[in-house]
Amino acid sequence: MIVGVGNPLRGDDGIGPLLIQRLKGKTEFALLDCGEVPENFAQRIIDFSPDTVILVDAADWKGSRGQIKRIPEGEIANASLSTHNASLRLFIDYLRRQTRAKIIVIGVQAGDRGLMDSMSPEVEEAAEKLERWIVGSSSLQGEEDPTR
Q1: Is CATH 3.40.50.1450 the classification given to domain 2-135?
Q2: I need a surface site. Which of 6, 26, 31, 99 has the fewest CB within 10 A?
Q3: What is the DSSP string of 63-76?
Q4: What is the DSSP string of 41-64?
Q5: CB 57 within 8 A of CB 5
Q6: Angstrom distance (rounded) from CA 125 to CA 131
Q7: pLDDT digits over 90-143, tens only?
Q8: Is the pLDDT reported for residue 145 higher than 80?
Q9: How far apart are CA 99 and CA 130, in angstroms?
Q10: pTM for this one?
Q11: Taking the CA of residue 120 as centre, how many other CA atoms within 13 Å lie in the half-sphere pointing to its CB?
Q12: 89: enclosing H helix or E strand
């Protein structure tokens, strides 16, 4: 299952929902746009019973705008994921306990995240790269890592 997190009205913060929109009809993976409140979708994810959950969200680790990074769980608070760092960590812990799924967090280095900001070209390019990675894979295992 691929879960997009973020607010499309806040520029680069909308990477998660944008990716979910781009993937509709192009992949066999279950897709879920959680907006800014992924915790409100926990039961839907649990009911789906995925073995792997890939969370895609805007982040800030002072990297290059549009850079894609797999964020280890221990770094979630340090990467300032979108607007919900503390709740995202709790959400991940809860999902793991309820589903025993492998949880992968993919962050995209954001730039502008102000209300009504446009998404930057670099982050749109990151969405395209992630889309190609997901659509080109049936399992996401052994495929070229988009974070490189």
Answers
A1: yes
A2: 26
A3: --TT-EEE--GGGT
A4: GHHHHHHH--SEEEEEEEE-SS--
A5: yes
A6: 10
A7: 888 899 999 999 999 999 999 876 676 789 999 999 999 999 999 987 555 544
A8: no
A9: 25
A10: 0.85
A11: 17
A12: helix 85-99
DSSP secondary structure code for residue 123 in this structure: H
Instruction: Supply the pLDDT for residue 143.
Output: 47
- CA dist., res. 63 & res. 123, Å (int): 12
Contact at 8 Å (CB) between 45 and 103? no
Distance set, CA 72 to CA 61, 92, 99, 120, 132 (Å): 12, 12, 19, 25, 23
Query: Which helix (H) or strand (E) covers residue 107, if one does?
Result: strand 102-109
Enter the tokens of residue 38: 């992924």
Quick: pLDDT tens for 21-43: 999 999 999 999 999 888 899 99
- Closest by CA to 73, choosing from 37, 36, 104, 109, is 104
- C-alpha dihedral, 67 to 72 to 73 to 79, nearest 10°: -30
HSE-CB of 84 using CA atoms within 13 angstroms: 22
Query: Is beta strand 102-109 parallel, antiparallel or unpaired with respect to 68-70?
Result: antiparallel
Residue in the structure block whose two tokens are 């990477």 = 15
